[in-house]
Design goal:
By secondary structure, the chain is an alpha/beta fold. It is built from 12 helices and 15 strands.
């Protein structure tokens, strides 16, 4: 079997609701989408989802090769990027190609990807993540209660600009999740808005009232010494690595014991690179958590990682032109028997999105908010539904 061609469809979707964090607290309802299909001379194709648009520049590295040689092809692409670097759009394209090849490899074998990767079962513990800075208190409660009704007893809240509001909203999340667990697991995420000194001060106040499982990105992604300082100063675990792209970039976090949780995704140099990072972390006694993604397709990879804890689940409605073979049940993402990632494409809906792109509020990716790492710029009245004129730090 040989790789013969590819097809990349890009589109823009309008989600069912706004999503936002400390860098864009008023949120966005618009999100770009990309579907990559890698074809073969035997008619099978591998599918992956992402944002990469530089596929044509990398495709010659795999054209004519056997798609089952996934690790070898991963190295070929990595070597192809030796001078350009595994960064930016090149990194996203690299990741999308690798994921599509793993989908294809599992389809050739006729099994779900989690099974091909050696997972024990096709289910992964889920935690609810609202990407919720832009939600009112009422909508915040409704989101986490809806997830709790599906058995999810853990949640992660966006924080970072108003300590008084953060404390109140953590309590709302805890109450909403309480029907699924007597002691909900609570996480918070500052999305690199804080500096290490901000994180330590704010966490001291938060931990007076709440038992936080982890604080995510309490300082900049590359500030491994600052992250270590935070980790040594608080009870909660520190989570990071979301915006790093390879094992080489993540290694300083491991070597300096800067984080107890690594947040992983398909964008960590694809399935192959994601597994490398997880396995290296396992050697340091560090756990990993899979990030949210369209159709929760990376649950297949999470199910086969020995040190995976739980996977982030968001429901803003990003699957308009996709079908997928997984669902949430009893607090877990449960995968069906479809081969590969279990992703299908609704061609009619995709065509409509491309022909008549929807319009809406906001943009993606989020820019970094003024004051990040230096000083706090609170949300202004009208910027988010819950903002007040006197935020408290």
């Amino acid at each position: 079997m040989k790789i013969t061609d590819f097809r990349l469809d890009t589109y823009v979707m309008k989600m069912d609701r706004l999503v936002g964090d400390a860098n864009l607290p008023d949120g966005t309802e618009m999100m770009p989408g990309a579907i990559l299909r890698i074809g073969t001379d035997e008619g099978l194709e591998g599918i992956s989802l992402g944002f990469g648009t530089g596929i044509a520049e990398l495709f010659p590295a795999i054209e004519g090769c056997d798609p089952r040689d996934t690790v070898h092809l991963w190295k070929r692409i990595r070597d192809w990027l030796h001078k350009a670097g595994n960064e930016g759009m090149a990194s996203l394209s690299f990741s999308a190609i690798d994921a599509a090849l793993w989908d294809l490899k599992a389809k050739i074998a006729g099994v779900p990807l989690w099974q091909l990767l050696g997972g024990r079962e096709g289910r992964v513990k889920a935690y609810a993540s609202g990407l919720d800075y832009c939600l009112s208190d009422e909508d915040l409660f409704r989101f986490y209660r809806r997830m709790a009704e599906r058995g999810v007893g853990a949640g992660k809240l966006k924080v970072g600009l108003d300590l008084k509001a953060d404390m109140r909203r953590i309590g709302i999340m805890q109450e909403a999740l309480s029907i699924a667990s007597d002691k909900p697991e609570l996480m918070i995420d500052a999305n690199e808005y804080w500096s290490a000194r901000h994180a330590i001060r704010w966490m001291a106040r938060i931990e007076e009232k709440f038992d936080i499982v982890w604080v995510e990105e309490p300082a900049a992604r590359h500030d491994y010494l600052g992250l270590r300082q935070v980790s040594d100063s608080i009870r909660a675990s520190v989570a990071s690595a979301e915006n790093l792209k390879s094992l080489e970039q993540v290694s300083p976090l491991l070597a300096n014991r800067s984080a107890s949780i690594l947040n992983l995704s398909a964008n960590h140099s694809g399935v192959t690179g994601c597994r490398q990072i997880a396995q290296a972390a396992h050697g340091f006694g560090v756990s990993v958590s899979m990030m949210n993604c369209q159709a929760n397709f990376m649950a297949h990879v999470a199910a086969a990682l020995p040190n995976h804890t739980m996977m982030e689940v968001v429901d803003p409605g990003r699957e308009h032109c996709l079908t997928f073979d997984n669902w949430i049940e009893d607090g877990h993402i449960v995968m069906g028997e479809a081969p590969g990632f279990g992703i299908g494409v609704r061609e009619d809906v995709l065509a409509m999105l491309q022909a008549d792109p929807p319009q809406g509020k906001g943009k993606f990716p989020f820019p970094r908010r003024e004051g990040a790492g230096l000083y706090i710029v609170p949300p202004q009245p009208g910027e988010v539904p819950w903002a007040t004129t006197q935020p408290e730090e």
